[in-house]
């Protein structure tokens, strides 16, 4: 029955996979905290305007990929396709201007109506880092360093290349835009239909087109570098110097642009050749005009988002160490003692498996299957003597010990 399948492009995350998923989130969170970022969350849905106004009407996300709906109160809402717009909206709504630089870490589900493939889903998850209110290139250096450190701790930094570019400041863009319009206008017949529309509304967007024909034209298009103002040039130089000092290797990719309208100056992507077509694992940039575009006071910002599913695909499976102990009571009186012992051990942070029923043989098998490292056996005899039997499930070695010594022994 189709209704019993998850919706196309969505996935259940079962316990084994969830452990890997959780590992990525935990490493990211801990690393972000080390750099002084604080965790926060915004709602999973926002007024559609929040995304439409910030990401740009001609972006793929806004023009094709948003999960938008009208709720029962008649409000036009959208399931968030990314974190940045929501965090900036929250920055404005909560009047956080006096808290700049505001450094946030977040993670959670995102929604985009895309063609599902390996590493591309309709509900996917991101880790996200943002710094709002810092105009200095040192903020860009820091934001990129957090990302590099997370990838290093996940053991995947050397599977990735950091590609770096500048998109210039708004003044640089004026001249560049003209040059692009001039260039692409000479090749309109070879442009895709989407890109013909982009040519009028937002020619820069053509550079990010995934259409084969467009890409051939883009290969010879003018580069932003020739149109940078001295200030934009200095900013990019300072960023590169800073990354050098921070020991973060990068490659300047003069053709790298990002798919959203709000970027200025820095654009970057950590890419890999190990995930086929879905090669970008983590990407971001500077968005100095965004907060103003959303209706706030002009405030610069920079951030990135990384796809958790892609990070999981790239990282090695995390072995989950079998650290729990099974309690195996034999007889009705021992059942009660087992329950008490379980409470005691768990309170002392020992993971305990206690079956709901079944004979001792079945319970031993289950303990094995769950990978318990030891079993605590209690029968009438042990009860009477105030002892327990502790069996090492790897070596099979068995010992009797006073109940009072059990906790220390198990912890050791
Ligand atoms: P792509 O070019 O792959 O579509 P994007 O530029 O749309 O990526 P961003 O908006 O920058 O992606 O999102 C940041 C990261 O989130 C991506 O680098 C990727 O790891 C992840 N991501 C984006 N869309 C998806 C998706 N549909 N499924 C899984 N992960 C995704
Ligand atoms: Mg995309």
Which key terms come to mind for this protein?
single chain, 412 residues, alpha+beta, BirA Bifunctional Protein, domain 2, Rossmann fold, 2 domains, five-stranded mixed β-sheet, 16 strands, 21% strand, elongated, binds adenosine-5'-triphosphate, binds magnesium ion
Topology:
Elements: H1 15-34, E1 38-39, E2 45-47, H2 48-55, H3 60-65, E3 67-70, E4 76-79, H4 84-93, E5 102-111, E6 123-132, H5 137-153, E7 161-166, H6 170-185, H7 193-201, H8 212-218, H9 230-246, E8 251-252, E9 264-271, E10 280-286, H10 290-293, E11 301-307, H11 308-314, E12 325-329, H12 332-347, E13 352-353, H13 360-369, E14 374-378, H14 380-385, E15 387-392, E16 398-402, H15 406-411
Parallel strand pairs: 1-5, 7-8, 12-13, 12-14
Antiparallel strand pairs: 2-4, 3-4, 5-6, 6-11, 7-9, 9-10, 10-11, 14-15, 15-16
Bound molecules: adenosine-5'-triphosphate (ATP) and magnesium ion (MG).
């Amino acid at each position: 029955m189709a209704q019993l399948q998850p919706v196309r492009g969505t996935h259940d995350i079962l316990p084994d996979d969830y452990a890997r998923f959780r590992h990525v989130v935990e490493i990211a969170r801990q690393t972000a905290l080390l750099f002084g970022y604080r965790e926060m969350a915004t709602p999973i849905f926002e007024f559609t305007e929040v995304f439409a106004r910030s990401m740009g009407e001609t972006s793929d996300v806004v023009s094709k990929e948003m999960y938008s709906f009208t709720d029962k109160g008649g409000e036009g809402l959208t399931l968030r396709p990314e974190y940045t717009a929501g965090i900036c909206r929250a920055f404005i709504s909560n009047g956080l201007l006096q808290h700049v630089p505001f450094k946030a870490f977040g993670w959670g589900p995102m929604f985009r109506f895309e063609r599902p493939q390996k590493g591309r889903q309709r509900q996917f998850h991101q880790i996200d880092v943002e710094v709002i209110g810092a105009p200095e290139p040192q903020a860009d250096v820091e934001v990129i360093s957090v990302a590099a450190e997370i990838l290093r701790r996940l053991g995947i930094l050397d599977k990735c290349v950091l590609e770096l570019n500048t998109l210039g400041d708004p003044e640089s863009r004026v001249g560049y835009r003209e040059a692009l319009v001039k260039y692409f206008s000479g090749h309109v017949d070879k442009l895709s239909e989407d890109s013909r529309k982009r040519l009028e509304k937002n020619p820069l967007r053509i550079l990010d087109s995934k259409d084969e024909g467009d890409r051939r034209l883009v290969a010879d298009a003018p580069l932003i570098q020739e149109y940078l103002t001295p200030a934009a040039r200095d900013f990019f130089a300072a960023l590169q110097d800073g990354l050098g000092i921070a020991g973060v290797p990068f490659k300047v990719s003069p053709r790298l642009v990002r798919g959203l309208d709000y970027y200025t100056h820095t654009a970057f992507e950590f890419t890999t050749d190990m995930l086929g077509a879905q090669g970008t694992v983590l990407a971001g940039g500077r968005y100095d005009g965004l907060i103003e575009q959303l209706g706030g006071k002009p405030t610069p910002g920079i951030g990135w988002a990384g796809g958790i599913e892609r990070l999981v695909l790239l990282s090695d499976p995390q072995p989950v160490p079998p650290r729990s102990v099974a309690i195996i009571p034999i007889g009705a009186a021992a059942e009660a003692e087992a329950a008490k012992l379980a409470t005691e051990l768990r309170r002392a942070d020992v993971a305990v498996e206690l079956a709901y029923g079944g004979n001792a043989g079945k319970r031993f098998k289950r303990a094995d299957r769950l990978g318990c490292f030891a079993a605590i056996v209690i029968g009438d005899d042990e009860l009477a003597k105030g002892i327990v039997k502790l069996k090492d499930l790897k070596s099979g070695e068995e010992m009797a010990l006073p109940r009072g010594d059990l906790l220390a022994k198990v912890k050791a």
